[in-house]
Each structure stands twice: as C-alpha cells, then as structure tokens.
Amino acid sequence: MAALRSGTGAALITATVLASAVTAVDANVIKVAVPAIGRSLHIGTAALQWTLTSYLLSVAALLLLAGALSDRFGRRRLLAVGLLVMLAASGLCAAAPSAGLLIAGRVGQGIGAAMVVPTSLALLNGALRPADRARGIGVWAGLETLGTTVGPYVGGWLVDVGSWRLVFLLNVPLILGSLTALRYVPESARTSGAFALDYRGGLLAVAGLGGVIYALTLGPDSGWLSAPVLIAAVTGVVCLVLLVPAERRPAAPMLRLALFASRQFDAINVMTLVLYGALGAASYLVILQCELRLGYSPAQAGAALIPESVVFLLLAPVSGALVARAGPRWLMTGGILFVAAGFGWLSAAEPGQGYAASILPGVLLWGLGIGLAVTPLTAAVLAAVGDADLGEASGINDAASRIGGVVVIAIVPVLIGATGSRGYAGALSGGYQPAMIAMAGLCVAAALITAVFVTDDRQAGHMAGHRADGWAGRWAGLWTGHRAGHWAGHRLVPRAPENGCPPLVPVPAPQEDS
C-alpha cells in the first residue's frame, strides 16, 4: 500500500479527484445548457427532459452492479473502462445532430459513470496505507469540491462564449488527466473463487426504473392514458414489484432485503428519497428560472448556487462535532426545515428583483440546511445497521438519493405546467412558484419522517466523526454526503454537494476492524 506523500499517492489523488469530477460535471452542467439545447435542436419538453434524466437513470440503475464488478475484475481496470466509455459518449453528445443521438450519448455517459462512481474512491481507499486514508480522503474531498462548485459556472460560460456542445467536452481534459494518472496506480486485489452477479436483479431494476421514468417523462405531452405511457408505467411497476421476491433467491443479491428489517433504516431511505428528489429538482428549477425569466446568462445561472456550496463546506465540520454531542435526530430535522425555508424564499424570485434580494438569502438558507443535515444523516445510517453491513447500506442509501432525484426531476414539466406545446419559459411564469413550494413541502415531509422515526444514537455520531486527524481528517470524518458504497467493511465519509445534492462515500473501516 502506498503512502500519501509518494508518487503513487499523488497519482491516486489525481486520478480519483478527476474521475469523480467527471461524474459531477456530467450530472450538473447540462442544467445550464438545457434552454440552449432546446433552441438549437428545436426539441420539445419531453426530449429535453430525457437529456437530463437518461444520465441520472443509467447511473442509479447500474450503480450496485458496477460495485460488484469492480471487486471482481479490479477497481483500476473498471475505472479506466468507465472513463473511456464516458469519453466516447461525451464525443457523441457534443456532435449529436438530433435529440435521439444526444440522449443515446447521455445514456452512454451514465453507463460509464455507473462504473466510475463506485470505483474511484474505493481505489483510493484500497491503495493507500491505513494511516494515510483519512488524510487522503480529506485532500480528495477538498479538491473534488472545487470542481463540483465551479463546474456549472464554467459550463454556463462555455454556452455564453461558444455553444452548448462545448459543455459535453468540458470533461475531456479531466478524463485524459485521470487516465494518465492511472498509469502510475497499481491494480487492486480482485476477489477469487466463484463469482455470482445478480443479473436478474439488475435487469428488473433497469426495466422498472426505466419504465416509470419513461411514463413520467412522456405523459405530459402524450397524455397519461395513452397506450405508450400506460404500457411503460405498468411494465415499470410490475418489474419493481418483482424485484422484491427476485432478491430473496440469489446467494449474492444486488439488494439485500435483510437490511430493511430496521425501521430506522427504512425511514432514512424514504426520507433520503424525498429530500434528494426535492434538492435535485429545486436546483434545476432555480437555474431554469434564472435563465428564462430573470434574464441571467448561462454563466450567471451556473454561479447562482455557488454560495450554497460554500456555506455547506464551512458548516459541515461544525455539524459533525454537534452530532457527536447531541445525536442526529433534531439536528437533521432542523437542517431539512432550513432547506424548506430556503426553497420558500426562492419561490418568490420574480423578474425585476436583484440577486441579493431574490436569490442569495434562499441559497444561503439552503446551504445552512444541508450543512446541518447531511452529517447527522450519515450518523443515522451508521446507527441503523451493523458494522458488517455499512458498505451495502451506504450503497442502498445512495441509490435512494439518486432515484429520488431522477423521479422528481422527471415530473418538473408537470409541476410547472410545461405540457403539450407550452415550453419552459411560458410555463415558469405561473408554475415556478407552486413547484418550488411543492419542493419545500417535500422537505417538510422529510423532516417529519426524521422527527418521528430517526433515533438519537451518540455512538453513531461518534462513529461518523471518528478518525479525524487534523483539518484534513475533519473533512474526512465529519463532512458527510451520499455517494455509492457497495463495499462491505467501509465507513461513510462526506463529499461535496452536487448542486444541492451532497452524496455519501465509503471510507475504510479502522484497521482493527479489518
């Protein structure tokens, strides 16, 4: 295993930071380019929605399977393959002459991202010596946050000075840099013996989520009772229902149902689904409102949410210290209610108002809320399952956050009334405020679930913050979010918010637990 202050350690940090930044860029910067894409390709609301949701859907559906593949075939190898898939798909997106090819490219980006997300940090964890892991995660988190914070602004600037197509090339230097650094990174150990991959569960998850999202996206334009919408909806629901008995049979199921015996674990995942759905849709709505009604350029719209990330970065370590003393329940409840208040403020943003009065206060409340709520969320996850189940629990919780995001983003046109020939600009005039109030309502619902079902566990709070080693260790042990973790025996630590959606990541358990 490599030391952090070595050539291999530097290559590990470089490769994993750049790889993680690629997935964040592809998930978020397209939001500032949606209006320009619609004007350039002359496409309707449903097709525009698919340019965003197809990527999110692919990642959410394939995430857990990719985690298992990385353990079997090697994390370095799967990370490189995922990056190459994303590189080819990004080229297709940038050159796409039609909406169909653009969506196909976005699906390809999502497939590649599903391989990158669960392997980039796992590779860093597995290759660094135990004494350097907390500090390495801290360095990784700080550097990666810089990319996720400024990415939408840079993407908007590219739309301003060039074309929306350049947004899909923004990740090319990141991919090439990561692949170059991977040349100096050793391959991780691979699992030996019989290999069982839950193909049935993976296919049911893809078909189920795909059918539901297809119906939600097509319904506003084609009619909710049209044959394609009904067939897709029924197929999706049936596949999701069949997923439960299907996951009882495999020796190594993609979704281990025994974890759901904990009422707190169930409640946390429902709350995560609701909260992260609201966060993802709200960031999309605010950017659309800024560009289409408030007169912001794409670059200005991309920069509008930067203060939220800054507040989150400053507050998350403090929140971690509070969790260790008071437990997660009320800190998480209060944080989510601050997010709801921020959404309520943002719902009143109208043309003619300045940024300082209409956007900034709501964005600051938003950052305050997730800064308070996300670290307790990890503490509650840790308290709900045993040490041996932390990796799988984090993977399930991450999937819940992504599914919530893609489902609520898919119904944004319905929420604002962008149906039929009515585009985003016209629909936002009367639909933006009710939609943002609905997002605030989802946050209130998430807060109620937390207050009723989540318990305070001081030991969990201690676990969320343990292994802090200086400032870098505080980032690694206290600053928390939701990124995939399908690796048993890994702790959870924080990562930067992706435009309002801070994800959880796994870090290695203490050496004595291994």
* The CATH class of the largest domain: Mainly Alpha
**SS strand fraction:** under 5%
The helix content is over 70%
**Number of DSSP strand runs:** 2
The total tally of domains equals 2
Q: How many DSSP H or I helices?
A: 20
List the helices and strands in order: HHHHHHHHHHHHHHHHHHHHEE
Helix and strand content put the structural class at: mainly alpha
Residue ranges: pLDDT <50 for 5 or more in a row? Answer: 458-497, 499-514
Mean pLDDT: 81
The named CATH superfamily of the largest domain: MFS general substrate transporter like domains
Separation, N- and C-terminal Cα atoms? 15 Å
Largest sheet composition:
2 strands, antiparallel
CATH architecture of the largest domain: Up-down Bundle
Radius of gyration: 21 Å
Shape: globular
Reported by name, the CATH topology of the largest domain is: Growth Hormone, Chain: A
Oligomer, anyone? single chain
The strand order across the widest sheet is: 1-2
Protein described:
With 514 residues, the chain is mainly α. It folds into two domains: 456 residues, Growth Hormone, Chain: A (Up-down Bundle), CATH 1.20.1250; 51 residues. 73% of the residues lie in helices and 2% in strands. It has 20 helices and two strands. Strands 1-2 form a two-stranded antiparallel sheet. Helix 8 runs parallel beside helix 16, helix 10 runs antiparallel to helix 18 and helix 15 packs across helix 19. The radius of gyration is 21 Å and the shape is globular. The C terminus is likely disordered.
